[in-house]
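The material for today's practical consists of a large collection of protein records. Read left to right, the backbone structure tokens trace the chain's path through space. An example says more than a description, so a record of this kind follows:
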Amino acid sequence: MQLSFLGAARQVTGSMFLLQLEDGYQILIDCGTDMERKIDFEEPVEQKSFFSFDASLINLVILTHAHIDHSGNIPMLYREGYEGQILCTPPTADLAELLLMDSASLHLRRLKAAQGESRKKHKQMDRLLRKGDLYLQKDVENALDNFVTLQFNRRFVVFPGLEITFVPAGHLLGAAHVLISVTEKGETKTIGFSGDIGRANYPLHIDPQPFPEVDYLVCETTYGNRIHEDKDSPMDALGKVIKETCIDRPGRLVIPAFSVGRTQAVLYTLNKLIEERNFPAVRVFTDSPMGRSSTKIYSKYLSYLNPEAREFHKENDELFDVDNLIFLQTEKESKAIRNYREPCIIISSSGMISGGRVEQHIADNISNTYATILLIGYTAEGTLGRQLLAGTDMIVVKDREYKVNAQIRKIDVFSGHADQTGLLTFVKQQNPSKIKKIFLSHGEEASMLEFSSILNGLGYADVILPQKEDTFEL
């Protein structure tokens, strides 16, 4: 049996692992978009496989959760000849449909924008063609027809000798760790894939559940060298900023937040502040059509939420319907709130301030001394969010320069990833004297190196940091 690392190797995005059994049966675990993929502009544009493997030879795909860096290239598999099933949990199937359709719409807009005879248009089209992952709605529909959903903690027998179990990971609605049991020539081996590990006591999401002992473990390391800084609860941390910005003075609070997962956690926390702490019902604008759609999916799968959220729903009949909440649909509605003069909260994507409607809200409010920009998650290098956290005095939004007068705040209580302590809790469920190998993935190299060193110190002897395309015999 062989395990190949085809993505998220010494980097965060593009999760993809290939498990090949001795009889040639091939299982792909995740098929995510590599947001850090380099494009070779020297090679001629030609029709060639998007993947480093033959998609038509893959027998089964397992999806840990819906985020694009885990699901984003599933439609490409079907474009290149894959005909099998996608196994995942029911919420993952619904969220993946939402995210993949959105990606297809984005691809279509980019293609339309690159059509034309000018030199600039030719360059745009050349870049798109070289990148390659240009699936459209019909490709997503082909993929969705083959999604098969499994419940948590129920062993699924693919065929005698191959069993799969999803264990709650807590990172996102429906997110799973994957346990694979393979029996070959009378010997059974177990392989665990962490997916993305959530954190304990997160709003809405269940805590990561204990993972059984395995022979081989693939573990993510997004925060392998970081400890979450905020010790306050989400209600305390968010409540403090709202009070300072919108209650003690007539200000605006702009919260860049990803549409799936993060927006729902913020809305739920706002609702709890109003219902349980008698917070004034400040006007809340949620400016993300996808945020609204994913909120409906969260409401659909109440049984997948944590006990506290289910109890809150039982007592209040809803989770996200905050008093004075308005979901904005059109860009016209989005732009119109710049004329709203009362204290308000604006929740908009993207969370890193890298594209999306939030850029306009930043432009409209960044020079306002009564405004606060609250960053609630990781911001990548090169994004406006990272620039603001670095303390820049001026920013450029859509080719226009703005002076930074607004307050810039950051809290990490809404980060959906386990920190170093949470990752260690996950790995420590494995016996150092029994586990054969631990592979680290889905993290920057510095994060992996520090986490690997800690594991070595705890007695885990064989900790490996694979390079992309590395293959190991199990």
Notes: The longest helix spans residues 90-113. The CA atoms of residues 274 and 280 lie 7 Å apart.
